[in-house]
Amino acid sequence: MIETRKVTAEDLVDNPVIAAMSEYDHEQLLFCNDNATGLKAIIAVHNTTLGPALGGTRMWMYNNELEAINDVLRLSRGMTYKNSISGLNLGGGKAVIIGNSKTMKSEALFRRFGKFVNGLAGRYITAEDVGISPIDMTWVNMETDHVVGLPGKSGDPSPITALGTYVGMKACAKKQFGNDSLAGKKIAVQGVGHVGEYLVKHLREENAEVYISDIDEGTLKHVSETYGAKVVGLDEIYDIDMDIYAPCALGATVNDDTLSRLKCSIIAGSANNQLANEVKHGQAVLDKGIIYAPDYAINAGGVINVYAELTSNTSEWALQKAEGIYDTIYEIIKRSTDENIPAYAIANKVAEERIAAVGKVKLPY
Ligand SMILES: NC(=O)c1ccc[n+]([C@@H]2O[C@H](COP(=O)([O-])OP(=O)(O)OC[C@H]3O[C@@H](n4cnc5c(N)ncnc54)[C@H](O)[C@@H]3O)[C@@H](O)[C@H]2O)c1
Fold this sequence. Notes:
Blueprint (H helix, E strand, L loop, with lengths): L8 H6 L2 H7 L4 E7 L4 E9 L5 E2 L2 E4 L4 H21 L5 E8 L8 H13 L4 E2 L8 H8 L16 H20 L8 E5 L3 H12 L3 E5 L3 H11 L2 E2 L12 E4 L8 H4 L6 E2 L10 H10 L3 E2 L2 H4 L2 H10 L4 H9 L1 H15 L3 H17 L6
Parallel strand pairs: 3-5, 3-6, 4-5, 7-8, 7-10, 8-9, 10-11, 11-12
Antiparallel strand pairs: 1-2, 2-5
The protein binds nicotinamide-adenine-dinucleotide (NAD).
The site of nicotinamide-adenine-dinucleotide (NAD) has 24 residues, from helix 6 and helix 7.
GO biological process, one term: amino acid metabolic process
Keywords: NAD, Nucleotide-binding, Oxidoreductase
Family: Belongs to the Glu/Leu/Phe/Val dehydrogenases family.
């Protein structure tokens, strides 16, 4: 997670939006409006030093423009860090469509959005995010080639995200326990949806003792029976005796309350924005001697998957690249321990260092 100071109503009175962009060095913010289709969207290009800005499009009923601006600025910056730390030749971008994803979708709206994306001539490449389905992206694709993750292309990113999370967890085990075996380790996986289920499969194949929770009873029963994982309550999961906590559902589950209860010595999962407050809880985790695998580094399998599609690499290449998350996480947590600096801050530094180094030999895209 990359925290950004939120733009306030006062900022917008005293300063133009561009001042908010300059705070975290965003390159471009494109406001898109089309009365005929009802499209209201914002595309943010944060940084293109490493390559074209890639990041998904989110459709959300924001309460006001300020919320949408804040979200797109924060998310696009996060993509710059994720793409950089993953060693991809991609910058960071994101788009938000302001509207109700249940009632406002149409072919015309997404084709109009696709025209706006196309107008950026490849500086921004879009993909699915919250509120967007594959069919929506096929409509976008009718107007622009700058789309990834289309049906029939690189496919479901969840298995590769789970693989990256699994190997990242093993890297944490190596640092914390002296070897990377997860056999016999007590691991609590919160949320056994697309990524969580594949992760449980890897863990059970290595004979870890796996505990699971999920709000969906059917999913819980399926995963428990298929892999022999033990079901625990939604809140109980924070209190059980465990070695590793793997958040794979919600953000902000590492917070004041849970940190006073968690008995684990590793936090490694696929969920985005795991630390409720990056600075406060990143430091608290370090102080408690817990190894934390920064979320955007450990869950980068999905973006690696679409990068393979973009660069015409094979799925084997993507799998191999995702296995490299082991080394990425190990380097971050080793530096975190050696320098006594929270892991999230080290991850940010590593991402920034790569951008600065490559920036010396390359003009922005
Ligand atoms: N799918 C990917 O490739 C990918 C890539 C990067 C990051 N992520 C992140 O990983 C997480 C999981 O993604 P996913 O694709 O598996 O999503 P998903 O929706 O398929 O699975 C999430 C699961 O969490 C469950 N859940 C919701 N609230 C819960 C709660 N309070 N307690 C326990 N379980 C709860 C849901 O019922 C669901 O089964 C998300 O945070 C997502 O943003 C996913």
